[in-house]
Design brief:
The complex is a heterodimer. By secondary structure, chain A is of the alpha/beta class. Chain A has 7 helices and 6 strands, in the order H-E-H-E-E-H-H-E-H-E-H-E-H. The chains are: A alpha/beta, B alpha+beta. Chains A and B meet through helix 4 and helix 5 of A and helix 3 and strand 3 of B.
Chain lengths: 213, 133
C-alpha cells in the first residue's frame, strides 16, 4: 500500500510533463483474445460515439496497429486527451492449424497466421513509443504466462506506467481469478472490468486518470 | 518385418558461460537458430526483458518463412527455484553480490519449439513440458 502511494506520487510528478503536452500515447497491450479492441471500442463509443475495430472469437483478429488520434475523456469534471493505440495481441507461437478449428479454410488460415506474425512484430516495435500502457488480461485465464511476464517486464524496463485490466469478469470462469492476477503483479493496480458489458467501466476511467495525473 | 520409426526429442543444455559474453543480438540469434533446429533448450540463466521480446520478434520472422518449414514459434518460460528465501543475512548478501558480478545462474530458461512443445506448465518446484503427439 505504502509502495503504491509513493509510486502514485512519483507518477503524478512524472506525468506533469505529459500534462503540458496536448495529448500522449496510450497503448493497449496484452496476449491475444484478451479484449484489447473490445475495451478500445468501449472507450471510443463512450467518448467519440464510434467503434475502433472489429472483434472476433478467433484469435489474432487485430493484426495491425490501430490508432485513434484524439480521444477526449470528460469524466467527473476532469478532462483527459490522448492518442489511443490498439495493438495486435502478443504471442510466442502462431500455428495456422489452430485457425482451422474456427472454420477457416487452409488458405485463409495461412494468410491470417502470416499477418498475425507481422502484427506481433509491429506491437513490439511500438512499445518504445508509448507514454503509458493498459495491459489487458483475460480474467478467466492463468496470468502466470511468459507472454504476460515478458510484456510487463519490458514496460518496467522502459519505465512506462502500467495499468492492468482483468477483463471478461462477466464470464463464469473469471470468478475468484482477479485475485490471482493481483497476486501475480502485486506492484500494479488491477481493475476488474467487462469491456463487452460495460461492467465496472467507471472504475477503469478513475484508474486511468490516476495513472496519468 | 516392418521397422517402426521412432521419433526423438533433442534437449540441449546451454551453460551460462556459453552465452554470457555474447552481445544481445548474437545471444538471441544463437537461441533462434537452435530453436529452428527443433531442439528444446535448457539455458542456465535468464534473458533480459529486451532480449525476450527480441527473441519473440525474431522467431516470428521465421514462422511460415518457407513452405518446407514447419516452424510455428516457441514456448518459453523461466524457472527460478525459490530455495534461497530464508537464507541468513550475510549468505543472502554474498549470493546477491555473486549474482551481480557473475550473472543470475540459479534461473533456468526453457525454450521449446511449438511444433514439439504444446505447453509449458510450471510451479515453484517443477516444470512440465506438454509435448505434441
Amino acid at each position: 500500500m505504502v509502495i503504491k502511494i509513493i509510486r502514485n506520487f512519483f507518477r503524478r510528478i512524472f506525468f506533469g510533463i505529459f500534462a503540458t503536452r496536448k495529448h500522449f500515447k496510450l497503448g493497449f497491450y496484452g496476449p491475444t483474445n484478451s479484449g484489447k479492441t473490445t475495451l478500445a471500442n468501449r472507450i471510443c463509443k463512450d467518448w467519440l460515439g464510434e467503434e475502433m475495430g472489429k472483434t472476433s472469437r478467433i484469435p489474432h483478429e487485430t493484426r495491425e496497429i490501430h490508432v485513434k488520434e484524439k480521444v477526449e475523456i470528460d469524466f467527473n469534471s476532469r478532462k483527459l486527451t490522448f492518442k489511443l493505440v490498439d495493438t495486435p495481441g502478443i504471442a510466442t507461437k502462431i500455428d495456422y492449424e489452430d485457425f482451422l478449428h474456427y472454420g477457416l479454410k487452409v488458405r485463409e488460415a495461412k494468410k491470417r497466421a502470416k499477418e498475425a506474425t507481422k502484427g506481433v512484430i509491429e506491437s513490439i516495435k511500438w512499445l518504445d513509443d508509448m507514454d503509458a500502457v493498459i495491459v489487458v488480461l483475460d480474467a478467466t485465464k492463468n496470468p502466470y504466462t511468459q507472454v504476460n511476464i515478458t510484456i510487463i517486464g519490458n514496460l518496467i524496463a522502459r519505465k512506462i506506467p502500467v495499468l492492468i485490466i482483468a477483463n471478461k469478469i462477466d464470464l463464469r470462469g473469471a470468478r475468484g481469478k482477479v485475485k490471482k492476477i493481483e497476486a501475480a503483479f502485486p506492484e500494479y493496480d488491477v481493475v476488474p472490468v467487462s469491456a463487452k458489458k460495460g461492467k465496472n467501466i467507471e472504475e477503469f476511467y478513475e484508474s486511468l486518470f490516476n495513472l496519468v495525473r | 518385418m516392418v521397422k517402426k520409426r521412432t521419433k526423438g526429442v533433442t534437449i540441449q543444455f546451454i551453460p551460462y558461460a556459453e552465452i554470457a559474453y555474447l552481445t544481445s543480438y548474437k545471444r538471441v540469434k544463437k537461441l533462434v537458430d537452435l530453436s529452428i533446429e527443433n531442439r528444446i533448450l535448457l539455458i542456465q540463466g535468464k534473458l533480459a526483458p529486451g532480449e525476450e521480446v527480441d527473441l519473440i520478434e525474431e522467431t516470428m520472422k521465421y514462422i511460415g518463412k518457407s513452405k518446407s518449414s514447419k516452424f510455428r514459434g516457441i514456448e518459453l518460460t523461466t524457472f527460478s527455484p525459490k530455495t534461497k528465501q530464508n537464507l541468513p543475512f550475510f549468505t543472502a548478501f554474498r549470493e546477491k553480490v555473486a549474482s551481480a558480478m557473475l550473472g543470475n545462474r540459479d534461473v533456468i530458461t526453457v525454450i521449446g519449439p511449438a511444433t514439439i512443445v504444446r505447453e509449458i506448465k510450471k510451479d515453484p518446484t517443477k516444470i512440465q513440458l506438454l509435448l505434441r503427439k
